[in-house]
Amino acid sequence: MPTVDEKNVRPRDAADIMWNAAEPLQSLRDLRKAAEEEAQKAIDWYWKSKRWKATLSRAIQLYALVLTALAGIAPIVIQVLRNSGMNIPMTFDSGAIASLCVGTAAALIGLDKAFGFSSGWTRYVLTATSMTKLLHEFRMDWVALVSATNDSPTLEQQAGLIQRAKDFISGVQSMVLQETKDWATEFQNNMAQMEKDLKSQLDTLKAEVEKTTKEKEDASKPGAMELTVTNADKTDGFHFDVVLEGASGKVADSVSNSKVWAKIAAAPGQYKITVDAKCKGNSFGTSSIIEVKPGETAKASLELPIP
């Protein structure tokens, strides 16, 4: 008889089915019993095995439904509580809760699809139901065939009953085989889709990482500054001093015989440039804010307040 265990349906041992030519009626009864047991054990296996699939499927669908509903309700509830005067910090992000709920619900549905809890439950119920129908048909056909025989069925009648039992067992095994094929096909398709989705997610993540890395590199790329003091030629000795203030501190420099001061390899950011000079012994100064952008040269023009 088929052995029912936790994982598989195993067929009856061939040694359990014997034919005694001296007692054909008893042999036919034994054959019928063996055939019915073969089918009934397979039916019992499917009904028993579908229970945990049904439990997991229902749990996943319930939690996914609750989480999806919570994702839509949470922001509204938070807003209502705030409007009612409840002290809820504005930094509390209800959108993050909604995203977490939706993401978890999607993960649960993906888990159900990947491992086939709902689809397996459906397959098991359909297979067990079809086998039960086949078993009832076999019993009725067997009674009809036996009713047409005498106490000693002819060889032709015996062959007809044996053939009916063979067809019945073959039908049961065909259903087991078809269900197994359906499972294998679904499993392979799910694995292929999972690999495809995983590759797509990895490609997307890689692209985002590369984009973020490039943006950071571009944002930190040094720039340059170019300052023109339009009336520097009116200063004593054609000379002026420059003080550059930025996030890294102060830098002082001097320029002679030129209206232009320049600095290369400047970190991106805002700087304050102060220019001091003397004209006829009197000190004059002015300042300006200049912004250095990554990889660009910031140009500014100042005029000393020389009368």
Explain what the structure shows.
The chain has 307 residues and is an alpha+beta fold. The chain has two domains: 3-218; 223-302, Immunoglobulin-like (Sandwich), CATH 2.60.40.10. Helices cover 58% and strands 20% of the residues. The chain contains four helices and nine strands. It has helices spanning 24-83, 94-115, 117-147, 155-220; strands at residues 3-4, 9-10, 223-229, 239-246, 249-256, 260-266, 269-279, 282-292, 297-302. The protein has a four-stranded antiparallel beta sheet with strand order 5-4-7-8, with no helix packed on it. It has a three-stranded mixed beta sheet with strand order 6-3-9, with no helix packed on it. β4 and β5 form a beta hairpin. α1 (24-83) runs antiparallel to α3 (117-147) and α1 (24-83) runs parallel beside α4 (155-220). The protein is rod-shaped and about 145 Å long. The N and C termini lie far apart (115 Å).
State the gist of this model:
By secondary structure, this protein is an alpha+beta fold.
Largest sheet: 4 strands, antiparallel
Q: Domains counted in the coordinates: how many?
A: 2
Structural class computed from helices and strand pairing: alpha+beta
Q: Kindly, what is the distance between the CA atoms of the first and last residues, rounded to a whole number of angstroms?
A: 115 Å
Mean pLDDT: 88
What series of H and E elements makes up the topology? Answer: EEHHHHEEEEEEE
- The radius of gyration computed from the alpha-carbon positions, rounded to a whole number of angstroms, is 43 Å
SS summary, helix count: 4
Shape: rod-shaped
**Helix content, binned percent:** 55-70%
Neighbour order of strands in the largest sheet: 5-4-7-8
Beta-strand residue fraction: 15-25%
